[in-house]
Amino acid sequence: MTEPVLGKDLLGLEGLDADRIRLILDNAESFKEVSERSIKKVPTLRGKTIVNLFYEPSTRTRISFEFAEKRLSADTVNIASAGSSVEKGETLVDTARNLEAMRIDMVVVRHPSSGAPKFLADRIPSNVVNAGDGRHEHPTQGLLDLLTIRDALGEVAGRRVCIVGDIVHSRVARSNMWGLLTLGAEVAFCGPRTLMPSGVEALGVQVFHRIEEAIEWADVLNVLRLQFERMEAGFIPSLGEYYRVFGVTAERLERAPRDLVILHPGPMNRGVEIDSRVADGPHSVILQQVTNGIAVRMAVLYLLTGGGSAAGGSTQRTGSRRETA
Ligand code: CP
């Protein structure tokens, strides 16, 4: 049997080469049409059992994985830490081993601790997909952002993408940075000094501390929320002050030298990091990100379970393994 092209697990975009990222995006492109059918289902993962194990709140990611799994005909179970034996003190690995004993094939895990998906992947034979771990990575969010930028601008290479806001606490910023740099984009971070990791310039990332400069430089803004759940101190004077200095507002975008594509991974805090007129405006692709999330997750699940060809080769076409169920 040939080795799956992505290996056993998807834990992050750091280290994933450009051919593999393009393979995922190309497969996602061909999976998009499944969600446009009246019967949104193909038999690709029939007989596979996938557990969505979420130790943190989630709307988009959990539901998007669940739709992706159901549209590929997998059997799915959702487990949240609230209401499970985690509340009684069971460890992550004991929970996973018990799931293994029920003969599962894959675990999609979100966890507040950076490295938890890797810890799990090293200990269980099932595929593990990182659905966001602490401040570390959120690879499927990075991939859906790449697909959305590619849809909007035709290609990622050479585009200037600025990630704005709470960079230091953001796994989305890290996955975006690795994926964008690998595909040849220019990457910048913009935010207050208190929310900026040190040393990113050494990775080839430009840093702005004035939103006006970022808007003048960029083709794309990816706007992040302030992640208070991961903050251990007061990083900003107040929400009002943050919006005054760093808010992505319609007035600021009107002064941009070109039309900017606006992304936000959600959940959005309107009037804190982004103005509603921008979030709902003509250059926002925020809801396209959500739609693309399902196709990207279908592609990841398909490739991890052995679908697809060698990286750089041709992608699977809808209608071969993906005929209507
Ligand atoms: N973008 C994102 O991860 O959203 P959720 O926290 O709702 O999953």
How does this model look, in words?
By secondary structure, the chain is α/β, with parallel strands linked by helices. The protein is built from eleven helices and nine strands. The chain has helices at residues 18-31, 60-71, 92-101, 116-121, 139-153, 171-182, 211-217, 239-246, 250-254, 276-279, 286-304, and strands at residues 49-54, 75-80, 106-111, 127-133, 160-164, 186-190, 206-208, 220-223, 261-263. The strands form two sheets. The protein has a five-stranded parallel sheet with strand order 7-6-5-8-9, with helices on both faces. Strands 2-1-3-4 form a four-stranded parallel sheet. Helix 2 (60-71) links the parallel strand 1 and strand 2 (75-80). The longest helix is centred in the C-terminal third of the chain and has 19 residues, at 286-304. The protein is globular. The two termini are 25 Å apart. The model is unreliable at 310-325 (pLDDT under 50).
Can you tell me the residue ranges where pLDDT is under 50 for at least 5 consecutive residues?
310-325
Count of alpha/pi helices: 11
- Globally, the shape reads globular
Strand content: 5-15%
Assigned CATH superfamily of the largest domain: Aspartate/ornithine carbamoyltransferase
* Helix content, binned percent: 25-40%
